[in-house]
Amino acid sequence: MQRFEFTLKATDGKARLGEITTPRGTIRTPAFMPVGTAATVKAMMPESVASTGADILLGNTYHLMLRPGAERIDRLGGLHKFMNWDKPILTDSGGFQVMSLSGLRKLNEEGVRFKSHIDGSEHHLTPERSMEIQKLLGSDIVMCFDECPALPATEERVAQSMRMSMRWAQRSRDAFGDRPGHALFGIQQGGVTEELRGESAEALKAIGFDGYAIGGLAVGEGQEAMFGVLDYAPDMLPVDRPRYLMGVGKPDDIVGAVKRGVDMMDCVLPSRSGRTGQAFTRHGVVNLKNARHADDPRPLDEGCACPACRNYSRAYLHHVYRSQEMISGMLLTWHNLQYFQDIMAGMRAAIAEGQFDAWEAAFHAGRAEGDIPPL
Q1: Residue 256 DSSP class
Q2: Which CATH superfamily is domain 5-267 in?
Q3: Active site residues per annotation
């Protein structure tokens, strides 16, 4: 069986071009992973997601364990078959979602007891159970179980949380075992404190993982603070392993992260924004709710080849959004996912050619121009 491997092909400054090889296919990095929370990228068919250039999807352990249940998915042939996606899947550990349930959870060294937001049923999630669930799902990349405090938080609270997450990382490693063709990623924590980030990185490297994530960001600290951490955090992680920034983000967040040495990212923003009438374009964010689009025959983004831009006018996209037609969320999500994948493809090409700085300058210049003016 093809083993999980990461190949670093080129660098330009700190920006990295690489490939992750898995039994289910190759992941080109820098990579953006669309989020398929409940075994679906909302408003999209799997083949449509693949057509945008996505090499990998993210599935959500917390939501899938509650509904339809990991054991059921396993009986039905695993997550890939269940959702009709034959490319790689990364599953998160469930820790981030449990963090957001602060009023419904009890946290201790063993793990987390929490009540389902769906029906109030009680569950116990531990590093061992998280590994078991992700094995039942059959994901290609498994995340170790961690705890992630919301920011702002005291340094003492962040340190306690990070050290417990490192103990959980060891338990996750032990429970994961040896699974050829599957990978386990550790998660660096430490908030916005460089010393704690360094301590976390050293603990993870001592355990040994197939890849390393930067966790605990995009949780309320703001872009400036996030970039401040990314100025040093990726450098603390092994050069020969992929680096994954969890839960990020907006287009300029993604470009800034790649510039600082990140290889993988995920975010619900393209699909969530698409369902609420927001489109990301080369000229910035366009709000299709606005009446200014009602008589506009032009495409949403003249540089995009997605169906929304190729086949429909802004006037039509405005109309179907205001009419609450399902096709609105479908078309705008497709466009947003295409735009995010176009960004990744552009960065990969620029790194390969040693032109990342020039590409980045053009990216920001286009967005600074603003949306094309109304007729």
Answers
A1: H
A2: Queuine tRNA-ribosyltransferase-like (3.20.20.105)
A3: 92, 266
